[in-house]
Amino acid sequence: MLKILRIIIVVICCILICVIGSIYSLIRFKNPNNVALFAHWFARLHPLFGLKVEYRYPDGADKFERCIYIGNHQNNYDMVTISHMVMPRTVSVGKKSLIWIPFFGVLYWATGNIFIDRENRNKAHNTMTTLAKRIHKDNLSIWMFPEGTRSRGRGLLPFKTGAFYAAIEAGVPVVPVVCSSTHKQVNLNRWHNGKVICEMLPPIDSSQYSRETVRDFAKYCHDLMEQHIAKLDAEIAADQHQS
């Protein structure tokens, strides 16, 4: 019964956010602050899933210059956890098929996010070049999930290099954002589903890398994020053991 009630409430809330957000974003069409605003609205739904979410930021995070944020992409619960970490004047990059999701697709488009055609490698590469130009032209930061798909409990998947090419091309840092593991954490028939920690790490300078060493850049960021996710998971496990 609790599960059914939760699903009904969450669906109603999501539809309302999408409808209100779409109308608002069509009025302020593709305003670069739209994405963070409604990402934070979705993040406020986390209590409906019985989750407690803690957000951690490095010093001066609100004053970071233009950059590319990279996050770990786990499952649909990312919408109510790591989405809160999206900063103002940040847009995300998503696959073209997102626009066909009822209600959400219009919101995703109207808020100013950028679509990418993953099936066409040439177009995808051109999109990364376009991203690099837009970062400076429109004074934007970009949010990307470099795994390219949800990990669904398989750990941090290998990174695609697009985000790192764009960072090198634009001459901006990469800022990793990690979320503790949520795979199989949520039971909708259970009132309390534990704690989640989302943490933004300090910027990583891209100027020490080049197109020839972009894979080294991706691997360095992958290893750093993997280690930090393990650290967060260990912290949560220790807290649960103490309680």
Automatic annotation (TrEMBL):
Output the Pfam families linked to this UniProt entry: Acyltransferase (PF01553)
Stated EC number for the protein is: 2.3.1.51
* InterPro entries assigned: AGP_acyltrans, Plipid/glycerol_acylTrfase
Domain Phospholipid/glycerol acyltransferase intervals:
67-182
Keywords of the record? Acyltransferase, Lipid biosynthesis, Lipid metabolism, Membrane, Phospholipid biosynthesis, Phospholipid metabolism, Transferase, Transmembrane, Transmembrane helix
List this protein's GO terms for biological process: CDP-diacylglycerol biosynthetic process; phosphatidic acid biosynthetic process
Q: In which pathway does it act?
A: Lipid metabolism; Phospholipid metabolism; CDP-diacylglycerol biosynthesis; CDP-diacylglycerol from sn-glycerol 3-phosphate: step 2/3
Q: Which SMART domains match?
A: PlsC
Keyword Transferase on this protein?
Answer: yes
- Cellular component, GO annotation: plasma membrane
Q: Which SUPFAM superfamilies match?
A: Glycerol-3-phosphate (1)-acyltransferase
Metal-binding is among the record's keywords: no
Q: Which GO terms describe its molecular function?
A: 1-acylglycerol-3-phosphate O-acyltransferase activity
Q: Which chain regions cross the lipid bilayer?
A: 7-27, 97-116
Reactions catalysed according to its record: a 1-acyl-sn-glycero-3-phosphate + an acyl-CoA = a 1,2-diacyl-sn-glycero-3-phosphate + CoA
Give the signal peptide range.
none
- Record's NCBIfam families? AGP_acyltrn (TIGR00530)
Query: In which family does this protein belong, per the annotation?
Result: Belongs to the 1-acyl-sn-glycerol-3-phosphate acyltransferase family.
Return the domain comment text from this UniProt entry: The HXXXXD motif is essential for acyltransferase activity and may constitute the binding site for the phosphate moiety of the glycerol-3-phosphate.
The protein's name? 1-acyl-sn-glycerol-3-phosphate acyltransferase
Annotated source species:
Gallibacterium salpingitidis
